[in-house]
């Protein structure tokens, strides 16, 4: 997928048609185990973003994130 790259160690990752999904094996209720850094955020859309959690690192030029208690879906957004 253009604009997304990741590195994972023992983290279940699913590649959908237009998104990446990962299942957090030990989710923190407040998502304190997920570190997101970005250049700019507009609602659920992040530009020049990096997510780090539980051995998983994802970089994205621009992406929208959908959160649920145990599953996170990342959709690349065209620039």
Sequence-ordered SSE layout with sheet pairings:
Blueprint: E1 4-8, E2 13-15, E3 20-23, E4 35-37, E5 40-42, E6 45-53, E7 56-67, E8 71-76
Antiparallel strand pairs: 1-7, 2-3, 3-8, 4-6, 5-6, 6-7, 7-8
Question: What key phrases describe this protein's structure?
Answer:
single chain; about 80 residues; mainly beta; eight-stranded antiparallel sheet; about 0% helix
Please tell me about this protein's structure.
This protein is mainly beta and 79 residues long. It has strands at 4-8, 13-15, 20-23, 35-37, 40-42, 45-53, 56-67, 71-76. It is built from no helices and 8 strands. Strands 1, 2, 3, 4, 5, 6, 7 and 8 form an 8-stranded antiparallel sheet that branches. The two termini are 14 Å apart.
Class from secondary-structure proportions: mainly beta
Largest sheet: 8 strands, antiparallel
Order of helices and strands: EEEEEEEE
List how many beta strands DSSP finds: 8
Helical region count?
Answer: 0
Our count of domains comes out at: 1
Oligomer: single chain
The shape is globular
Poorly predicted tracts of residues: none
Q: Portion of residues in helices?
A: under 10%
Query: What gap, in angstroms, lies between the N and C termini?
Result: 14 Å
């Amino acid at each position: 997928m253009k604009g997304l790259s990741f590195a994972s160690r023992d983290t279940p990752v699913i590649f959908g048609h237009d998104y990446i999904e990962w299942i957090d094996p030990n989710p923190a209720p407040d998502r304190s185990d997920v570190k997101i850094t970005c250049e700019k955020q507009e609602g659920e859309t992040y530009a020049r973003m990096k997510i780090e959690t539980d051995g998983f690192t994802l970089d994205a030029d621009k992406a929208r994130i959908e959160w649920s208690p145990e599953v996170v879906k990342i959709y690349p957004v065209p620039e």
